[in-house]
């Protein structure tokens, strides 16, 4: 499949900061990949100019931040020849692809939510998308509708459902930076400690966890300092 024009639109929400939303590639080195990377959305395009080195023909653009917030985000990708308009939540980046080629050759299947077979030309080990996608259109084709009606043009792999369940998560917000905290009773004579949590903040500094270790071993602290996470024992 060789195209001079492509339009991809979708909405997604996720709590995972990394994951492939869609991917397609060709035998001569063409590929297009849309993926979450650390809560930002990255679009990678290579129009497969075989006369150029990978780094000279590869184009990557990143938009957005904190997109792994379990809220719906809209995406629109419009490509005509080498001109690309990449829009995330009404913020648009206009750019031109590198190299001389102006068409995209996709010989393998297009995949949504992950890359099915790692190791094909141009692919890398990437995480599959974990979350919800709706209003998914590729060049005017309603992909989700085809999948729901089990059309032969598309097939589903793994745990895919046609619903979007809300995760059972109860967050807590600390309003004051100096007087708000959560206190849990300690457990005497404990041999080990296991703590896991997710957090989100705009502050560069702040204490996240403090506890006294048993056996007069001193305190354990987890804190932000200058935007970097620090563990002190």
TrEMBL record:
Q: Which InterPro entries match?
A: ConA-like_dom_sf, Laminin_G, Neurexin-related_CASP
- Highest taxon, organism lineage: Eukaryota
All copies of domain Laminin G, residue ranges: 1-164
Q: Which Pfam families match?
A: Laminin_G_2 (PF02210)
Q: What is the name of the protein in this document?
A: CNTP5 protein
Organism per entry = Bucco capensis (collared puffbird)
Highest lineage ranks of the organism?
Eukaryota, Metazoa, Chordata, Craniata, Vertebrata
């Amino acid at each position: 499949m060789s195209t001079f024009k492509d339009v991809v639109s979708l909405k997604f929400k996720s709590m995972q900061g990394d994951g492939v939303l869609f991917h397609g590639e060709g035998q001569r080195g063409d590929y297009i990949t849309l993926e979450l990377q650390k809560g930002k959305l990255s679009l990678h395009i290579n129009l497969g100019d075989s006369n150029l080195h990978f780094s000279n023909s590869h184009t990557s653009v990143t938009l957005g931040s904190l997109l792994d917030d379990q809220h719906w985000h809209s995406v629109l990708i419009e490509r005509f020849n080498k001109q690309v308009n990449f829009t995330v939540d009404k913020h648009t980046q206009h750019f031109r692809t590198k190299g001389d080629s102006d068409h995209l050759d996709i010989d393998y299947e297009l995949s949504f939510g992950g890359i099915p077979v790692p190791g094909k030309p141009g692919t890398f080990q990437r995480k599959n998308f974990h979350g919800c996608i709706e209003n998914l259109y590729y060049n005017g084709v309603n992909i989700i509708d085809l999948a729901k009606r089990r059309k032969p043009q598309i097939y589903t792999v793994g745990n895919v459902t046609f619903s979007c369940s809300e995760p059972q998560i109860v967050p807590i917000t600390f309003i004051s930076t100096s007087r708000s905290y959560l206190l849990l009773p300690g457990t005497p004579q404990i041999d080990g400690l296991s703590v896991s949590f997710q957090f989100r903040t705009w502050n560069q500094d702040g204490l996240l966890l403090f506890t006294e270790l048993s056996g007069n071993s001193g305190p354990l602290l987890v804190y932000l300092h200058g935007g970097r996470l620090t563990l002190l024992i």
